[in-house]
Amino acid sequence: MQFRKFALYAAVAATGLSALATATLAQAQAAEQFVPLLVYRTGQFAPLGIPWADGKQDYLKLVNARDGGVNGVKLTFEECETAYDAAKGVECYERLKTKGTGASGFDPQSTGITFAVTDKAYADKVAIETAGYGLSQSVDGTVFEWNFPLLGTYWTAADVMLQDIAKKEGGSLKGKKIALVYHDSPYGKEPIPLLQKRAAADGFELSLFPVTPPGVEQKSTWLQIRQQKPDYVLFWSAGVMTPAGIREAQASGYPREKIYAIWWAGSDHDVKDIGAGAKGYNAITIHNSAAQDKVHDELKKFVYDKGQGTGPVSSVGTLAHTRGMMISMLQVEAIRAAQEKYGKGKALTSEQVRWGYENLDLTAEKLSALGFGVVMRPVKTSCSNHMGTDWARIVQWDGGKWEIKSDWYQADKSHIDPLVKEFSAKYAKDKNVKPRACG
């Protein structure tokens, strides 16, 4: 009788353990992490938006195909078309923010949309990743707890451009004339505060030339440039505005080697159809270069060779596509970092992923293992610094391809930090945000 009871208990226990193991396995297999993808495949910025969106989606596909997700957690995603329109961007944000266990942060892919959702993100506890764009003052994590302008901002970009120009001019900008031709939108206006402060400090003359969106008509702007003869032009453009501006510069006789474009105006599609006519055109690149890396080979092997690529294979390795992959990689690594704290193999909430963004530590060794060691420099974020270290370099179009023309630069903190402090303090006051203490 005792033996029968023992056997019965053992059978029940074994059944229970088996069921538990099966349930645990099923739970691990079912764990999914949702990544919203705000894109603009239509509208004035579509030439930039399409390869950027393809790169973001391609990297998520690669992580699923190559690694089985993040520690076994499959990445799911959904695109939402914004056409670079702030109202549509807000609609996409509202629709996707609570999907799954919560959105793993948003890359709004637009400075205007970033402005529109920043206050919402604070209330909803959802991270906003703006690698290379957005609100420049959101570097300050004590005020902007949910914004992450990773890798660099428009202020750091403008500062690096001026550094490279000063280097060409023997170390001084005094007496020089520098023009800013910019998309007349929050995006285009973002570098102006930094440029105005630098002009006052360095003694150069700054002229501002707003271009009405979408920017296909710039003839009058470049005629003014021709008349005023600035020593250099900083070009804050994107999408259809970029080739239109380069062609007008060519038609007006303004030297392309005197033009410095922001990274969103320095992609292959911006210059390839112009070819030799754009020769000498400079662009700043964010944690990026014209180089290929291991991640490009792996994307072709695990995704494109299987017919699962998002766009044409010819776009793999172009600057815009690579930047898209970088943005998704940063998001994936924020998820991975958060899993180290909240549990490997678990689907995370939006708030938990935010912790990951704030505790990124991508060393050279980690980047090399991920396949980004050639095109990126290390980045580490913290409670107070939501950008990490900014690195940028200058590339130049030689008529057929991009060539690296500078070593890595970093922005001058003596110019940037006071501006960040001033503008973040104003934001905190205007929005009644109490800055948090960072240990």
Question: Can you give me a brief rundown of this structure?
Answer:
With 439 residues, the chain is α/β, with parallel strands linked by helices. It has helices at 2-30, 46-67, 86-96, 111-124, 154-168, 186-189, 192-202, 219-228, 241-252, 268-271, 294-302, 319-342, 350-358, 364-370, 413-431, and strands at 32-39, 74-81, 128-129, 147-148, 177-183, 205-211, 232-236, 259-261, 282-286, 361-362, 379-380, 392-397, 402-404.
How would you describe the overall organization of this protein?
There is one protein chain. The chain is α/β, with parallel strands linked by helices and 439 residues long. It folds into two domains: 31-154 and 290-391 and 418-431, Response regulator (Rossmann fold, 3-Layer(aba) Sandwich), CATH 3.40.50; 155-285 and 395-411, 3-Layer(aba) Sandwich (Rossmann fold), CATH 3.40.50. The chain has 15 helices and 13 strands. The strands form four sheets. Strands 6-5-7-8-9-12-13 form a seven-stranded mixed beta sheet. α2 crosses α12 and α3 (86-96) packs parallel to α4 (111-124). The radius of gyration is 24 Å and the shape is globular. Residues 1-15 and 17-29 have low confidence and may be disordered.
Provide the spatial order of strands within the biggest beta sheet.
6-5-7-8-9-12-13
CATH topology of the largest domain: Rossmann fold
Helix % is 40-55%
For the report, how would you describe the main beta sheet? 7 strands, mixed
Helix/strand class: alpha/beta
pLDDT averaged over residues: 92
Which CATH-level-2 architecture of the largest domain? 3-Layer(aba) Sandwich
Q: What spatial form do the alpha-carbon principal axes imply?
A: globular
Q: Spell the H/E element sequence.
A: HEHEHHEEHEHHEHEHEHEHHHEHEEEH
| Termini gap | 65 Å
Low-confidence stretches: 1-15, 17-29
Q: Work out the radius of gyration.
A: 24 Å
The tally of strands reads 13
- How many domains, in number, for the residues? 2
Please identify the top-level CATH class of the largest domain: Alpha Beta
- Report the sheet-strand fraction: 5-15%
| Count of individual helical segments | 15
The CATH superfamily name of the largest domain is Response regulator
